[in-house]
Amino acid sequence: MGDYSKALEFYEKALKIDEKALPPNHPSLATSYDNIGGVYSDMGDYSKALEFYEKAHQIRENALPPNHPNLASFYDNIGQVYKNMGDYSKALEFYEKAQEIFEKVLPPTHPDLAISYSNIGGVYKNMADYSKALKFHEKARTIREKALSPNHPSLATSYSNIGGVHNGMGDYSKALEFYEKARKIDEKALPPNHLDLATSYDNIGGVYSHMADYSKALEFYEKTQKILENALPPNHPNLASSYDNIGQVYKNTGDYSKALEFYEKAQKIFEKVLPPTHPDLAISYSNIGQVYKNMGDYSKALEFYEKAHKIRENTLPPNHPNLASSYNNIGQVYNNMGDYSKALQFHEKSLKIKEKALPPNHPSLATSYSNIGQVYNRMGDYSKALELHEKSLKIKEKALPPNHPDLATSYNNIGRVYNDMGDYSKALEFYEKDLEITKKALPPNHPDLATSYNNIGMAYSGKGDYSKALSFLEKALGIRQKSLPPSHPKIQHTKDNIDYVKKEM
């Protein structure tokens, strides 16, 4: 139910009894430490979690033979804490220790071995090493397909994990294919209000959201919400996460009042049930900050981004990727406010963390270079802007499949610099590369496609080719009128561009 203080109270009572009644190396004592460590992990207090897991570890290492499966399960727990802390090399170290034991003592199709491979796959996914992630998730799937019945929920988990990797790669049709496989199993194997079914709907909603099919996304997110409202108490953190997802859809469609309504529902729950320094609370504040940023209310945006930042500074190790996200968010607000030196200061802090914490070809590193490039572009330092956008592009070309939407973003950023320099033919060259990918990767009414048409239209306008400009701007307007609410500022912006071009013709 997410009542962590109550859980701790009972586990600590049990521990006191065990400490009095049992010798210091008794296995039951290790279980007590394990339980307390698990609660701290769920609370996001990872240093406390590690402290108790280490105590359990010492007892088990002394009491058990070196290849005992319980020792492997314990390494899995520690691996998960390090994964949550963003320390992926440490997470892998412990997950691989568990894997070694399981491979020695279990038959090759044992379900625990599948869990071990899944855990390792999850870390590689977070590191954006998608080929390695797929390799381990496929290993887990092979075991489960051999060892379990075709409608076993653990098989659905494997399909979901593989779907998640394809989602990360921007291959949304593949992601849907696997998420739908998982859903079919869950709908057959589980009761209609089972939480795993809610997760299935949530995953599918997430893909539709990425594809900008917002009505479909809402349909699945609301299915999730219904299950959670029936199955969980009204202040459960999972319900808050569901409200967050719905809020994100409304934010993406430009319905900021609706977005705030759902984000604030989530915030209220998190503030009631989570400790004030829980990472999920930081995410909640960040979400609200983002809406205010999009609304142009920069002081409110900074207020919420700073709240998120404080939590992350107090709870996370100094090189955690989420801390980098906080600096990045604050940097973007300063960039929008035109305070470029402040923007650079925060974006560079973000970059420093990512350079330490992430592999050199991680897409998140590319995002940092792009963000800094955008600041230099606004400052009119076009050569610096190009240098950074090209660095970003190189990483994305190595790390992502050739039709990934993030690659299109890079071409768009480079095109914008050339456009601002007045080199419209160069700008068009990159804008058209962006359009080519965007048309392949996204549905025909995706707002990003409208942005592509708008940019090409304005480049033609810069060249004085007003009839071509008008043709692209009208395409942009058509999409925006279909995909965005009528009051969205981008619709008016496109209309203004069309009026300008018509006057010049």
TrEMBL record:
Residues in TPR repeats: 1-21, 30-63, 72-105, 114-147, 156-189, 198-231, 240-273, 282-315, 324-357, 366-399, 408-441, 450-483
Alphabetically ordered keywords of this record: Repeat, TPR repeat
SUPFAM superfamilies, A to Z: TPR-like
Organism: Rotaria sordida
Domain of life: Eukaryota
Name of this protein: UDP-N-acetylglucosamine--peptide N-acetylglucosaminyltransferase SPINDLY
Stored Pfam families: TPR_10, TPR_12
Classification via PANTHER family: NEPHROCYSTIN-3, TETRATRICOPEPTIDE REPEAT PROTEIN (AFU_ORTHOLOGUE AFUA_6G03870)
